[in-house]
Amino acid sequence: MLAVIYYILALVLVVTIHEFSHAWVAAKLGDPTAKIAGRLTLNPMAHLDLMGTIMLFLIHIGWGKPVPVNPHYFKKPKRDEALTALAGPVSSLILALLLTLPLKYLPLVMPQPFFDFLSTVLDVSLLLFIFNMLPFPPLDGSKIVAIFIPRRFQRIYSNYLDNGMIYFAIFLLFDQFVLAQIFNFSILQFVIGNIFTFLKTLLFLGT
Fold first, then answer.
1. Whole-prediction pTM value?
2. Which residue, of 15, 90, 146, 153, is most buried by count of CB atoms within 10 Å of its CB?
3. 8 A C-beta contact, residue 32 and residue 67
4. How far is the C-alpha of 150 from the C-alpha of 75, rounded, in Å?
5. Domain map (residue ranges) of the chain
6. Residue 56: CB atoms within 10 Å
7. Residue 56: pLDDT band by 50, 70, 90 thresholds?
8. Is residue 81 among the annotated active site residues?
9. Average pLDDT of the residues in 184-189
10. Which among 13, 19, 81, 125 is annotated as catalytic?
11. What is the DSSP letter of 178?
12. Is the per-residue pLDDT at 59 higher than 70?
């Protein structure tokens, strides 16, 4: 039961920082849309997303409400929109890096519950970083790759962003409730699990 509580609290914390980072970078790059919408805040209630919360309970991975962005305010819309999208995953990676230090060097001076909670936050940070870097709408990775899309494919890419979310949701459900349940294999868990193991090993070896 404690592990579930730690996980939920960690997810709320990481998602809040993630979405706040989007809003903060967008504001710094000249777009006030998120600030006007009340998203430039560390209040978790401002960042909860219905579908992301449902997915949390179905597949144990969720996401926050997308931060509104108006690229017309940006000096270089394609670059700045990609940077705004990148801010969320990077905040999760930085949080994981910061938590690695006390978890590696101060485990004996921390109460066990606090150590367990910080460990959970670190794990959730890495998982959310990996998950959000996947190039599928509504995840940040789908917007980050925009900077690499040639101009002639821009309309196709825009259609992909507009319609890809429903297909990604179908894939998530198929992966978890068909592949995982019937064949005992999940594409998502395989990909994310291997990257997670690699990054976590790298963090603790490199600090």
1. 0.89
2. 15
3. no
4. 19
5. 2-206
6. 18
7. low
8. no
9. 92
10. 19
11. I
12. no
